[in-house]
Amino acid sequence: MTARRALLILHGKQALNEDVRNAVQRKRKHGWSLDVRLTWEAGDAQRLVSEALAAGHTQIIAGGGDGTLRDIAEALALAESDASLTILPLGTANDFARSAGVPLEIERALDLLDVPARTVDMGSVDGQLFLNMATGGFGSQVTANTSEDLKKVLGGAAYLFTGLSRFSELKAAYGELSGPDFHWQGDLLALGIGNGRQAGGGHPLCPNALADDGLLDISILPAPQEVVGTLKSLLEGGLGIDNLFVRARLPWVELKSAQGLDINLDGEPLNGDALRFEARPNALRIHLPAHSPLLGQSKRIG
């Protein structure tokens, strides 16, 4: 039997992960020719994707967190290759994987290699592509300021801990968003633009997003007059914060902010006072569970 072939691009921090090693050996016993390459510094993921495609690989595995996944997905999409992507979620948050229903158990995640690929969208802004979500406001500040040591100890709960500890620092940012038949302006606490449903370690900013509808989900959390008091009362009353969001689903949206707005692009920082976000339909072939919550339109493509 001819072995099926894939390349695992593994974040360097996972080099000694015995569970990954055992799962790779298991797939090899099941007929897969599975090569492994490690990232060490910025740009490695993109370089390894290019080398893999040049060598004829048609299946790439992203082994790491949301940042690693974004880098590899972007490189594949920009290459306009027919190669497909499998997610091996090894990060702290794994926001896209969780939204998509990808198993967090390593062996089960690798088994998605045998599931037919589907086409999904990506988002683009300022020349960069993203798979999960672009976030702005307090949520992106929390993500940026959560230390690696805290994530090692608390896992995904580290983001919540950081958010609560910085509650007194909450401040609104002014923004104006415009798209087809949509316009909103005012002070906002949080902004989510994406194809995934959660960001920042599990915050469901875009709870109804689909990754294959050709559209970006937009979620805006306006800033109440009494910011801290209002949010505290909502938290104490059972997290009724969802009712405050303004939401839309658009092929593109332009964001303007006179003082500039810090954006977190699947872990990649971005700042600008005028940004245009666009959906890139069918930008990526990816192996997801058949009943993934993010799949609504796409067909299996083998």
Describe the structure.
By secondary structure, this protein is α+β, with helices and mostly antiparallel strands. It has two domains: 125 residues, Probable inorganic polyphosphate/atp-NAD kinase, domain 1 (Rossmann fold, 3-Layer(aba) Sandwich); 153 residues, Tumour Suppressor Smad4 (Sandwich). It contains nine helices and 13 strands. Strands 1, 2, 3, 4, 5, 6, 7, 8, 9, 10, 11, 12 and 13 form a 13-stranded mixed beta sheet that branches. Helix 6 crosses helix 8.
Total individual domains: 2
Mean pLDDT: 84
Major sheet size, sense and barrel closure: 13 strands, mixed
Using DSSP, what is the number of strands?
Answer: 13
Helicity range = 25-40%
Q: Give, in order, the helices and strands.
A: EHEHEHEHHEEEHHHEEEHEEE
Radius of gyration based on Cα positions: 19 Å
Oligomer: single chain
Write the layout of secondary structure elements.
Elements: E1 4-10, H1 18-29, E2 32-38, H2 44-54, E3 59-64, H3 66-79, E4 84-89, H4 95-100, H5 106-110, E5 118-125, E6 128-130, E7 133-137, H6 138-145, H7 148-154, H8 157-165, E8 173-179, E9 182-194, E10 216-222, H9 227-236, E11 246-250, E12 252-265, E13 268-287
Helix pairs in contact: 2-3, 6-8
Q: In summary, what is this structure?
A:
The chain has 302 residues and is an alpha+beta fold. It has helices spanning 18-29, 44-54, 66-79, 95-100, 106-110, 138-145, 148-154, 157-165, 227-236, and strands at residues 4-10, 32-38, 59-64, 84-89, 118-125, 128-130, 133-137, 173-179, 182-194, 216-222, 246-250, 252-265, 268-287.
